[in-house]
Amino acid sequence: MAGRAWLSDQRGELAAEKILDAAEKLFAEHDPGSVGMNEIARAAGCSRATLYRYFESRDTLYTAYVHRWANTLYHELTQRLAAIEDPAQRLVTGITESLALVRGNPALASWFAQTGPPIGAAMAERSDVITMMVTAFLSALGADDPEAVPQRARWVVRVMTSMLSFPGRDADDERAMLTQFVVPVVTPSRAPAPRRA
C-alpha cells in the first residue's frame, strides 16, 4: 500500500524524477557504486517495489541519472559556447567547461572519484546518448571526414572520462594537453593553401 500512497499525487514522470533526485543526494554523499536500490527507495520515500516499477535495475537507474545530467550539461554548454566561432577554441573550451561542471557538482564528481572503481567512465563510454551528444557537438565544429565523427566522438568521451578520473596538474595543463593532442585529431584541418609558382 505504501507504493500507492506514494504515487497517489504523482504522475509517472514526476515519480521517476523524485527517485532520481533522491539518488542524486545519496551520490553526493557516497560512492555511487555502493548505493543500493534499498537506500534509494528509502531516500525517495517509496517502497522497493515502486522503485522497480520505474527502474528495472540499478543499472537502468544509473543510466537514467547519467543521461539526465548529460542532457542538462549539453544544453547549458551549447548556450555558453554559441559565440565561439573558432573550432579549436570551441572544442577546448567545451571540454574544459564540461570537466569543470562535472567536478563542481559533488553528485557527479563522485562518479569519477579516484578512491573507487571508475564507474562514471564505464557509464559514459557505454552511453549511446552521450556519444550522440558529443557527435553533434563535433559535427557542429565542421569536419573534414563526416564519416569519422562518431568514432572521434567516442574517443573524445574516453579522453574526457580519463581526465575526470586522472586530472592534469591544473586547468592550464589540461588545456595544453587538449590543444596539443585532441585539437589536431578532432577539428577540421587547417592545411595552408598551396603555394603558387
UniProtKB/TrEMBL annotation:
Domain (HTH tetR-type) ranges: 13-73
Residue ranges: DNA binding: 36-55
UniProt keywords, alphabetically: DNA-binding
SUPFAM superfamilies xref list: Homeodomain-like
Pfam families referenced in this protein's UniProt entry, alphabetically: TetR_N (PF00440)
PANTHER family: HTH-TYPE TRANSCRIPTIONAL REGULATOR RUTR, HTH-TYPE TRANSCRIPTIONAL REPRESSOR BDCR
Protein name as catalogued: Helix-turn-helix domain-containing protein
Organism: [Mycobacterium] crassicus
